[in-house]
Amino acid sequence: MRKTLLVIFFLQFLFFGNAQSIVVNGSGDTESNFGAEQLLTDVLLDGGLCSSTSNFQLKENPSFSFPHNNRSWGFFKKGNSNFPFERGIVLTSGYAINAQGPDSGNMSDGGSEWTGDPDASYLAGIGTNNVTIFEFDFVPQGNEISFNYIFASEEYPEWSCSDYNDVFAFIISGPGITNDPGLSGKNIALLPNGDPVTINNVNDDYCGDDTYYVPGPFTTIQHGGRTTPLTAYSAVTPGATYHIRLLVADASDTQWDSAVFLEA
């Protein structure tokens, strides 16, 4: 009888305990009270052990800026879920807290007063709205930088191969970096085939590459689909100053929100 109960408990843990949601801006997490710049330095960059930052700028939902609960960015942790990343920061084109799972319907947060960005619009191939940007100067101590990330969206799967081509970009400029045509720097958030990370480039429809696509619905996050974990990489010169723009945006409209999860 005891063995039977242990087996039942194990199966419950396997199928339910690991099927929980991530936690975004949890009330019990110290990091949820960090402003955007502190979140960048203390979580994403681990206290600046291998780099230093300055000249931080933030573009977010003007109607719900920090410390509002509906701000468009924040801290996430996997909690008891099976999300691929343990912890990190999330940038969204909606309300960050609504990125929590399970998938229970469409998220369409943010209005026309929350504008887009030229870099995002160039990559999406159409006008953008509801952009969240972490922008800063960065001085690396090593000769390379890399960040792991997952792009997720409510545009999946219904609006793949359309004008609703939401986008994530990691744009770097500085010594030794050749800017991409039409951009303020070089976008290093790329699929292995060199395409930027947008709805129309990574999906399981006719227009995209499904190698890096994971279909929903999910218990871990609210979005209808996401990428596999991807890596943004660039060689850099130690001690030199680089400028970085991390951004996610809605394309064409202000609905069907997208998010990027950056691993700490």
Mean pLDDT: 92
SSE run: HEHEEEHEEEEEEEEEE
> Quaternary status of these chains?
single chain
- Return the structural class: mainly beta
Overall radius of gyration: 18 Å
Low-confidence stretches: 1-18
Overall body shape: globular
N-end to C-end Cα span: 44 Å
Largest sheet: 8 strands, antiparallel
Q: Please give the number of β-strands.
A: 14
Strand % is 25-35%
Q: What structural keywords apply?
A:
264 residues; mainly beta; eight-stranded antiparallel beta sheet; 3 helices
Describe the protein in words.
The chain has 264 residues and is mainly β. The chain contains 3 helices and 14 strands. Strands 1, 3, 4, 6, 10, 11, 12 and 14 form an 8-stranded antiparallel beta sheet that branches. Strands 2, 5, 7, 8, 9 and 13 form a 6-stranded antiparallel beta sheet that branches. It is globular. The protein starts with a helix and ends with a strand. Residues 1-18 have low confidence and may be disordered.
Gist?
12% of the residues lie in helices and 32% in strands. The protein has 264 residues and is mainly beta.
